[in-house]
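Data availability (excerpt). The following record was deposited with the supplementary files.
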Amino acid sequence: MTPAQPLDVWIGAGVLALLGLGAALLLLLGEGAAISRSILLRFARIALPVALLLGLPLLVLSRLADLEDRLWQALIAGLVIALGWLTTTMFAETGRARDKAEKLRDYHKALFAEIRDTLAAFYSEGQGDAQAAQLVARMEADESFVPFIPNEVHDRVYAALLDEIEVLPRQTIDAVVAYYSLIASIRALAEDMRSDRFAQLPQGRRILIYQDYVQMRQRAYQLGSYALALIDGYAKGGAPGAEAVTRRFSSPDAGRNARSPGSESAG
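Predicted structure:
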């Protein structure tokens, strides 16, 4: 190898490194910066030890003896491949994260709409408690009266998204799953109350079961309101926004400050 060649090699390697650094900076400073930094750190943990173990001995050898041109060419080719892999991985991971974020927003919006409509059906304008009390009073006055319980389905959107429920972040998934689990229990109890066996029970038993049914709907209203607030908080402020909602609902005056569903909207 001629004396000029090492300089040309290092200049070429430097240009490649600068190009790779420029591409990395575009990713590190743009959308998906956190993902790019994570990939770059993982790459550095592997590449730096290898560079130290192989690069330093080669650098010393290049000072003591001429190395084959093919060796330098192989080194440059390896550097190009490594930088290409790094840049490609950053772009691919950033794209996947962007797609997941878009899917998350769509899922949150769909669940928000379904939960909000369900809560409106449960206790429209605060009339649910009064209607339940009137129905219980009628059952107490007429032992032959059996209330008609409609067959309500309030989880079609959730059922469609269930196979990909892991898309939801931890800040909202627990509340959403808890709410829809209660919705499933309410539906199962409603099916029992529509059966002939329920109609044959003594009126006192029917009243107790109906009161349990009403209390479950009230609990679903509370869980649904919490889920709506979490989804709305996440849409507006990400994970910190949802965590702030959790702290607000955990405070002693949460009940006094809670807003009705529908007063918030998922962004």
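Summary of structural features: The CA atoms of residues 179 and 223 lie 5 Å apart.
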